[in-house]
Amino acid sequence: MLAAPSAAPAGAVRARARRAADDGDVAGLGRARAAAFVAPSLVLIGVFLVFPALWTLYLGLTNYRLSGSAALHPKFVGIQNYLSALSDDRFANSLVLTLAFVFGSAVIGQSVLGFSIAWLATRLNSTVRSVVEFFVLLAWIIPSSVTTFLWYALLDGTDGTLNSILGTAHLAWLLQYPLQCIIVFNTWVGTAFSMMLFSSALASVPPSQLETARMAGAGTFAQFRDVIFPHIRGHALTNTLLITLWTFNTFTPYLLTAGGPDDRSNILPIFIYRLALNDGALGQGAAISLIMIVINLVIATVYLRLLKERKK
């Protein structure tokens, strides 16, 4: 009489143990499948991101060159490449040009122009708005080599289209105003992203709040300050962060000016390219690349902190 009650709990325990084992097998199988899906991405990240980063770090600590004895037997020089870069007038000049280029074409040019186009598009009918957005996007999706050729033809000092329009014969824009040219060029190329992001942001502004502001007698500036900007502030910070980082690292202006003349458009990506590949100083070029990464991290940290403060 006493054996039967004890057998039932024992069977229940065995059943629960089997279910737990089955659940463990299912969980293990799920983890294995998840690992199988993630593994190719991890391999690609390791090959194309982690390994190049570690290799660049190694090169920055050596006197590695493209040719000569340093190519076969590079020597460890520690932080000498970093100290040399920080004391190099060419690096200082390139950094100043890069900051001016980023501020002019990204922070001011692309952000302001992108928002202006998005703002004006909200006041156009759908057909005209689609045409405007198409031509702005066209500047973004055309290959860089084709875009550069078009701008070279526009700014050419001999038979350039701009000189023909303005009647300024033989004004060599790329020679006299190289930095200004690449700022305008990069603004023209990259404005489409800002336009699309701000268009999405403006679409999220409640029309009822705008209508209330109009009924209260608020002008255009007051509507922007009190209604629109509070809703798009986060989008504006995100847009500025992304285009700042992209502009800071862009190499496309090399196709237009190659950093010249007299290094007046020699922004950091071009400076690193010329130093590492033209001069063969891969170690110094790698060191400056890591300095660029640090600058990018500082910029990203500032923007992310501003975004974090906005959410509080």
Automatic annotation (TrEMBL):
UniProt xrefs under InterPro entries: MetI-like, MetI-like_sf
Regions that span the bilayer: 34-58, 95-122, 134-154, 174-198, 236-256, 286-306
The entry's keywords: Cell membrane, Membrane, Transmembrane, Transmembrane helix, Transport
GO aspect biological process, one term: transmembrane transport
Pfam families: BPD_transp_1
All residue ranges annotated as the ABC transmembrane type-1 domain in the record: 96-303
Subcellular location: Cell membrane
Domain of life: Bacteria
GO cellular component annotations of the record: plasma membrane
Membrane topology, record value: Multi-pass membrane protein
Stated family: Belongs to the binding-protein-dependent transport system permease family.
PANTHER family tied to this protein: BLR7065 PROTEIN (PTHR43005), SPERMIDINE_PUTRESCINE TRANSPORT SYSTEM PERMEASE PROTEIN (PTHR43005:SF1)
Protein name as it appears in the record: ABC transporter permease
Provenance organism: Sinomonas atrocyanea
